[in-house]
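<purpose> Linking amino acid order to shape
<body> The protein record starts here
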Amino acid sequence: MSPASRTPYNMVTPRGDAPSPGQRDGVVGPGWSWAAFSTPWADGRPSPKYRWTLFDTAADAVDDLLSCLDDGAVGRRGALCSSVLRKRGAPRELVLCDAAEWAYAVHEVRAGVHLADAADTYFARWRTNMAGHRFTIVNAGVPTVW
């Protein structure tokens, strides 16, 4: 079980009160979720903000991420990031990078796995695999989807 617990510092809360489509209670999989990682390329562990909920499908998690980006719940350039993601479409798992400021990871949460552990593991693996592309991502000037 993850040592992470909900605090105002590590959570993303949508501005609307209504639950997102496909949203369900619980933090242990199976399901899908997403997390935002501040300064993703800094040395050491990035600072995650988790969306403390599970979704039925990857598309539901992506739609919730888009909604949170549109309403400014996370990141300064949320509207730009959401427009890039909408143009790109929604693959099963993805990382949306906003240069060196934020990375948003949509990830699967396997049965019996805590969503924070799933997010941290998925993002750490992605960051290791993408280390050679770091400066391409940071210098792109626009959000990129990987």
